[in-house]
Automatic annotation (TrEMBL):
Gene3D superfamilies: Leucine-rich Repeat Variant (1.25.10.10). This is Serine/threonine protein like. SUPFAM superfamilies: ARM repeat (SSF48371). InterPro entries: ARM-like, ARM-type_fold, PP2A_B56. GO terms for biological process: signal transduction. GO terms for cellular component: protein phosphatase type 2A complex. GO terms for molecular function: protein phosphatase regulator activity. It comes from Actinidia chinensis var. chinensis (Chinese soft-hair kiwi).
Amino acid sequence: MLSTNLFRPLTPPSNAFLLYLLPEDEDLCANPSPSWPHLQIAYDILLRLIISTDAKTLRDLVNQSFILSLLGLFNSEDPRERESLKNAFHQIYLKFTFHRSFMREAMNDVFLHFIFEIDQKHCGIGE
C-alpha cells in the first residue's frame, strides 16, 4: 500500500517557479505538490511502521529496491515531502543496520551522478 501511494513519477522540474511562503518556517517553496495531504498520511504511516515494527519483520519489505525508490523521491520540488523522506530515511538507517552500507553507496551514487552527469538542478541537493 505504501509503495503504491509513495512511488509515483515525479513531475519534471519547472523552470517558472510558483513561489509562496510556508507559514511555519518562512521558506520559499517552488511548485508545491497538490497531493501533499494524501502523501503526508502515507509518510506518517511509513514512519510509524518503521519505528514501531521490528526490523526482522520488515526485512522482506524494506529491501534495496525500496530504498532506491525512496532516494529517487528526494528530487521532489516540495520541501515538505523531502523533509518527510529525510525522517523516514534516517529511521531506516537507524533500524536496518544490514542495509547501511548499501544506503551509503546509493547516496554516494546519487551525489556523483549529480556532480558529473546532470546539467539540471536536483531539488533535494542544495547549492
